Amino acid sequence: MLDLKLLLLVTLFVPLVGVGVIWVVAPLGDRAVRWIALLVASVSLICSTAIVFSSAAATQAELAVTDVAWLANSSVTPLDVRFHVGLDGLSLWMFGLSPLLTLTAILVSWEAIRDRVALFYGMLLLLEFGCVGVFVARDIVLFYVFFEFTLIPLFFLVGVWGSEQRQYAAVKFFLFTLAGSVLTLLGLLAIVVWNANQWNGGTWTFSIPDLSTNLRLAASEGNLPVKFQLMVFLALFAGFAIKVPLFPLHTWLPLAHVQAPAAGSVMLAGVLLKIGTYGFVRFGILMLPDAILHPGIQVVPNVVASVFPWVSTGTVFVYPWLLSLAVIGIVYGALVALAQDDFKRLIAYSSVSHMGFCVLGLFALNRPGLQGGTLQMVNHGISTGALFALVGMIYERYHTREISALSGLAKRLPILSFFMLLFTFSSIGLPGLNGFAGEVLVLLGMFQRAWSQSIAGWQPLLIAVAVLAVSGVVLGAWYMLYLVQRVFFGPLKEPAQHAAHAPACDLSPREILAVAPLAILVVWIGVAPGFFLSRTAQTLNDVEAVAENAFTRHHEDYQRLWSAVPKVTAPAVELSRRVP
Amino acid sequence: MEWLVVLIPTLPLVAAIVTASLGPRVLRSQSHLPVVIALALSLLCSLVLVVQVQRGYTENSDTGFEVPIQLWSWAVIEDAHVPEISGLTAAGKSLDEPITRPFRVDITLRADALTATMLAMVTFISTLVALFSVGYMHDDRGYWRFFTYLGLFVFSMTMLVSVSNFLLLFVFWEGVGVCSYLLIGFWYTRPSAAAAGKKAFLVNRVGDFGLIIAVFLIWTTYGTVNYHDVLHTPAGKVVVDSKTVQEAVSEKAAGMDPGSTLIRGVLGQSRIKTNDFVIGPDGELVVLAICLLFLLGACGKSAQFPLHIWLPDAMEGPTPVSALIHAATMVTAGVYLVVRCTPLFAACPTAQLIVACVGGFTALLAAVIALTQFDLKRVLAYSTISQLGYMFLALGTGTMAGITAGFFHLFTHAFFKALLFLGAGSVMHAMGDVIDMRKFGGLRHILPKTHLTFLCGCLALAGIPLFSGFWSKDQIVKAVKEKADQLEVSAVTLADLDTVASAPPEKQVFTIPPPWSASIYRWLHWSAMFTALLTAFYTFRAYYLTFWGRQYVPEEADHPHEPASMWRPLAVLSVCALAIGGVLEIYHQPAGYLQQTPSLSGESFIPKLDGEVALISSVIALAGVGIASVLYLGDRPFVGWLQAFFEFRWLSRVTRRAVYCSPYRLSSEKFYLDELYGCVVIWPLRTLANISGIVDRWLIDGLVNLIGWLPRFAGWMVRSLHKGLLQFYALGMVLGLLLLVLWMWWIR
What we know:
The complex is a heterodimer of chains A (580) and B (748). Chain A has one domain (4-561). Helices cover 72% and strands 5% of the residues of chain A. Chain A is built from 23 helices and 5 strands. In chain A, strands 1-2-3 form a 3-stranded mixed beta sheet. The longest helix of chain A has 35 residues, at 529-563. The N and C termini of chain B lie far apart (110 Å). Chains A and B meet through helix 8, helix 15, helix 17, helix 20 and helix 21 of A and strand 1, helix 6, helix 7, helix 20 and helix 21 of B.
């Protein structure tokens, strides 16, 4: 047990130590910096791998928990902020993925970054520190600190080493996400304060497990006011939905991706987006189950309603809206991706589409959906992370992101094309690769929610959502294969200014090393997802129990609400013809 | 026995991996060796399996015979699903089924008669095609790549027919699609090949969209995606062995409950015995939906209208691929699916009728298009679509005779169509990759072996009596005729009409009364016979255009030749094309063997040759060949005249403009379906995508920027007030005072 604790702490803090070392050795030159960054990332990867594949991870719901007092002094203040870290099924695989993608990011930038190298790798390691921290934090303050902390290194990565519009993109990304996360902070604090007043006799506990136990109990007994839950949920939504990003709040993402250096894109798509979905489950579902599932509350006070009668019916149903936003994101993201002529924009919009699948699965709120959604978070991290890495390699060779400037690269760069095709197939959910395992469970969960576990009155909407989500898979194949066809197949075409240089070489061993582990994972998860699912099952079954409990509590409300709606019956059709 | 069915797909997979890893550096021009050896071994295993299934059946002939073999679990989610209460009470009345269902996808293979037949056919043809490719592809740069893909394809295809689970079926359904995508785009530097590959994949994806939704619906309806019954023992063990499960079921029925729970597979023996497919209040509607979605999937993979458009373009791939994937094996996956799901379709006559209509219509449509094509491979491609349509037509009858006939046709068609495609490949090889029939002619002296073998294929395809195609096509026509007769009789004598009329109105929509069906089947019967005439005609048109007439070759053909590695597989296939139908027919093999499949063992049935139908078919086939001979054999004096007539030149001479919808133009332009889809599907979606792109950039991002701009605007507004000018402040103060005084005066 001690071992796992130690390993987790090493995984978390080694990058921070690495930053210090880099600062010291920076005068020795870029080479030393690179190797130290690589070493540090490898150490943290080895430790995290040891944890996620340990036998304890298969049996225990929570593991590697460290809990020491941090900002707590109960004699002076009622605050009880603790340094509380650990893993459970929800965070396990994302925790494992973050160091792996950092390694990829470091290898991708090996030759691409030649300017202020020490600072770059320092930032990259800080980013890893933040990403790992978000997923291991079990204390709200700690979580929020890491949550915000991830913004800073990425801000610099985009702003300093990005492309032409890097500063605009960095500022927009920073302000956009910050605006949301400020509200998230309010929501989180509201939870803490409510809990302190209600349960702990004035002690402010920030422990996530304690809070979720308390709140779900209160919710199941009906003691947690629905309006409170709803308002807190909307506050959380502001931060997490921007992070995911859900449909209308996504415009920072393509810009940031396009302008970011390859390493930044890898980390952004691979890890940072998942913080949003992770937060939705960790706080949204587990702490505020009624906010999503309550059939509706009146949002305007009676005084207003008496003056403006038409708003008196204004009720809020979070659940259908959430699912609709997710599915709009899926279809809309795919359509916009189809219209792009920029590699990175295209893949960025495909992220919008794929993250919609994650949200859809998680909010199907049954076991297949939750498991699929969680797996899909990892899958998207792997395949999109790898796609951005490969696009970075292409950019390094041709200095263009324009799809129409390139053609027939399969002839020039066969190994790169092989990997590109593999990750494209993974991204479009080809069976036997990882994307399929996640998507099929997500969609299965959604169909289950729409058909056999449906909610009175919402069934048509849920069915529409489920079917539209499946159509997103077809569109996904379209834009990705269109990309592959244009860039990798057909007669060879390279940018004109490039013709003067020596012909582009295929992947070097370093570059193969950057994407090969991801390729292995793609196949492994695709062939035996059972292994990966089994380690998340315990925690996610718990989440499902919370949601199911809320559904049961509101079952009668749904029935009552929709019993008044007249049923539509099919018109009688005269078909039979009597034979004399 | 168990290991055979595992070995058959594993061997090609291993060979593919070996070829991929050793091909480029070590094996080089010998890259075909691993795959050819593995395929030959697989073929051997398949043949042994066929015999063993027969033997196993004779031992327990009461239930039909199946052997599921469980390898490992792909994914397990415990207690994933709670079936609807109504469904549970309806389904669980006889056997106490579990309240919650695990979502359990096991890698389970199974051997039964249907699977064994498919395996034998697939491995036989793929072995011959691999041998043929050794000659055909010998100096291609991607030699090893070709054989790797080929091995992967055979792996996927054999898995597709041997899995025992709808989700895995989908996995390999897409798996063969990807192999097809890779092989169509094999010469990826050609833009047309890359585009054709993408088109095939996407059109198939539309079909897969239906298939996966059907799988989800099966899961929500039946709580399992397995074909077979699964027994969960109290100790947590999972038993799939059909014998043990059957014993447990009978023990349970006798009251000796061993405490284990049974999850009845969708096509499991216990469900088939109780014919329990309609579950829940809207059960019929759900089954109809599942069947139609399956049909959509099958239309994609088997190139049926409206999703047939990818197959002709797929001819961009190397010709052996066209023979193997796009004629003999992969495109029959849809037929296999429908045969496999016979019990489901049997529960829904409306779905059967729609299957028949789709099949009959596609057969006619494709045959009409094939009449005017000049690309030899495209003629064959459209003929494949048309023949697949025949198969669906047969399956659509829903009778045992029809299903057997459809499957029989699948079997015979695989041989003669593979033969024809390989023959076309041989022509192409000799003509320097030219395949336009206008650019060569009279090849029978240059390519004598190809000519003879191609003729065998043509005879079989045209349905000339005593050749393979004749027997199976004849059975299809007969099955459709019998179905129509049967429905006409039942419509008058049975009280079906009253039950239909008294059904609640929402159900009537989904039940088509027998008199209507009877007349539809009658029409389909006529259309099938007309299609047979067209088939004979276009087959021999292509044959005469290629091998008869004045002898000339294109410039690209520098040394026309037929290597032995190429004509030997052709010879083997032509023996099959000539004889296999007749041999099987004489021993009543197709029907008898197929009935050993548990899901097809409903009614026992022995097909008989119907003299009248056989006579009419023979006359039609000979007539088609006769017309083709008159038109194309000699100096072809009437062809130009006939073409001008059907092009409506007489009309365009009057109206002084080209007639685009003349019969000839419609046929040669494939009824403008590609253009239609371009206008109706592709263009709107593209436009929508572009509009979304603009909306995203300007509207949504614009709103975000507007919000970001608001504070700046407010700041700009207020900034002008703070200029640091003393006079300005003084003025403000005076004005303010003035206003204050005015206000005070006003309220006084």
